[in-house]
Amino acid sequence: MNDFDNNFETIIAMDRTVERYNRYLKKTEYLILNVLKQHSLKIIGYSHLKLQTIADLLHISKKTVYRTLKNLDEKGYITKIHTVSGKRKNNGALVFRINTYTQYEVIREKNVHAKMSTLNQVIKTGKELSQQALQHVHAKQETIFFLNLLNIFLSNRKRLNKTHSKVLYHNIKNSDIRVKPMEVPDAIYNVAKPFFSDEEILSLYKTMLKETISNNIYDTENHIEIMIYAIKSLVKAKKKEFNGLASKIKNDRAYYIGILREYIGQHYFVYNAVI
């Protein structure tokens, strides 16, 4: 450990940087990062803790600690430093460095470039998905065209039996042709599609965005996680209501918002201090 220089000039500087990070962390990430901070005082910014020690301090599993540290590392808040020891240069102690905000920005910039490279590799796939979306739109347009034709046929009793044409009109109008709202991620749409109309899914998605963004949650993966949980919870509640196992839900939207807020409160740390 003596080979490391202080990453921060003062403990106060480290504390303020961690406070800045806290605004964007989930609850478990917040707890683990602050444990590292509390054990980074001898050499400011560096700590050496076993995973099991962190797990015991926070009363969580070792796997959760490992997964959370990996996330903090990938997001640029900390850096795991693998040391070597002995003449054979075996793996030594695992050291955790709390990154300064400048280091965090550099790491984040690298991650952005890496994501852009990945994005360029899947442009062809994106084009194929766009073509599929256009096909859905064309199918919708064809349906409208046929409905217009049927309206013409209905006005001419001599050419088409009125009763039969009404049945045909009803079948086409109520067909299952659907077009996914472009704003809604596929993962969310696939879960919600069996239970809600496209308009309802879009409305639920916008409601979720309002709740998450107001709590400084901007990551798309977090949005997907939160909304899928809320949709599944709402559907389960409606099933219980239908089967007479629970009281009637007075307002589906209000119930859905309640699920969102409860989940965000339990799994995400909202830091309100102004830096």
TrEMBL record:
- SUPFAM superfamilies the record matches: Winged helix' DNA-binding domain
* Keyword annotations of the record: Plasmid
Q: Which domain of life is it from?
A: Bacteria
One short Pfam name that applies is: HTH_36
Any idea what this protein is called? HTH domain-containing protein
Source species: Macrococcus equipercicus
The root-end lineage is: Bacteria, Bacillati, Bacillota, Bacilli, Bacillales
